Amino acid sequence: MSWPRQPLDRRQALTAAGGLVTGIFLALTGAGAASAAARGPAAASYTNPVIWQDFADIDVIRVGGTYYASASTMHYSPGAPVLRSYDLVNWEIAGHSVPVLDFGAKYDLNGGRGYVRGIWASSLAYRPSNRTFYWLGQIDFARTYVYTATAVEGPWSRLTTIGTPYYDAGLLVDSDDTLYVAYGNTTISVAQLSPDGRSQVRTQQVFSTPPSIGTLEGSRFYKINGKYYIFLTRPANGQYILKSSGGPFGPYTLRQVLLDLRGPIPGGGVPHQGGLVQTQDGAWYYMAFVDAYPGGRMPVLAPVTWTSDGWPVVQLVNGAWGTSYPSPAVPPPPRQVTPLIGVDTFAGPALSPRWEWNHNPDNTRWSAGNGLTLRTATVTNDLYNARNTLTHRIQGPTSTATAQFDFSAMRDGDRAGLALLRDSSAWIGVKRDGGATRVVMVNGLTMDGNWNTTGTGTEAASAPVSGGRIWLRASADIRPGAARTATFSYSTDGTTFTRLGPVFPLGNDWRFFMGYRFALFNHATQALGGAVRVLRFELSTP
Predict the structure, then answer these.
(1) Which H/E stretch holds residue 8?
(2) pLDDT digits (tens, 9 = 90+) for 50-71
């Protein structure tokens, strides 16, 4: 994963947070050497990005007829979402590989903060011998964690920690069931794990990136037709691949896959990182991501063919990554996937996997069922320090979030509402002070480059409200390129909405890595004891 210590000119003002690797034993077939376009005119087409939400550092695998992908989440909890698809185009969130960020008190917003740390590029793999999914990733440059589950929905549990931090690692389950990890930044190494996956047996440097290329990272590790491949990114504008016929420890030969390739999202960056995956009929695809701030990093998909001597070639459209390709030829799905947008009434005790908390929540201060109850968990005037802020990715290119709040149990000094959350934030919500309740729009919540708060917000507009219910709305345009904005509005009847406050400019600097999110929050500024209930949340597109 890319990190701000890299030279800015190399990033061309857009970063690529690095991905991790998934690896399984794969074989090329004749169908895999044919482009998607050659599968016949009857095939439907898909449009890039295949997911217009922030899922970076994609690692993609297939198990039987089902595709899975993992992504970075940094300080959001639970971490490392697992996406599921039956056609590589339509995706749902099935679960999370890391149930809680139990890597230190800062991830609890307790005496510290974990912003832009946590779950970086990580690896998802499936081991047929024990029918188990493995997630592997390093945390804070300190050590590597391995989690396992027999179903991606969970439960996931920690298998082990390994003393070597496998930076931007890719996990390979070899054809003889041996576990290998490719990892590193510029200097690429391969480690062999013990048969039970709990410890390192050996590690060895296998490649040093030439100075003419600069940085390579974001390993994915594969075995294809008896040869070993390490798929690497040059952040944030190139993709390279290493190939070895001599075994997992090399020697390796390097080839460029793409460089400065025009991407499919207007105003966005170069498709890079991500991973390779083979369909049931032997066709190959590359799922990468595109830097597309302010929304984040969006997954894109392109078919891949192979040269006669075993090198992958991305299939282009007019010299660029296509905005559209024929859909993968796969069997009909067993069911429709759960949409990534829509309505949530929080009817049951568990949250949908679409939701992730800003840092770990205090589980004694929230509950779901007949709505989402958020009891104040923190006394602070800084939303960035407030626990139990619940986030949802924004759907691109534009979308609107509407949340219905019951604020009748708020107490003096409480603040509750709907935010657009990033290192420059704003919100619309309810303030209760001196027994009076107002709906307010607050902007000017800011962080510096070390992710310390520099602004706790300024009230830009307000209006008195009565009763106990209010509908809060935020609309965001997250198309990359030119400056984009968001607006806030409210309603007291759920039908007629009134704009409140000025247009909010969305920051598109890459250094926070994660894109903007919608966020539900409730925190105290005087004393704990208050609560709100979110009766309904809807994410909709025009």
Answers:
(1) helix 8-11
(2) 999 999 999 999 999 999 999 9
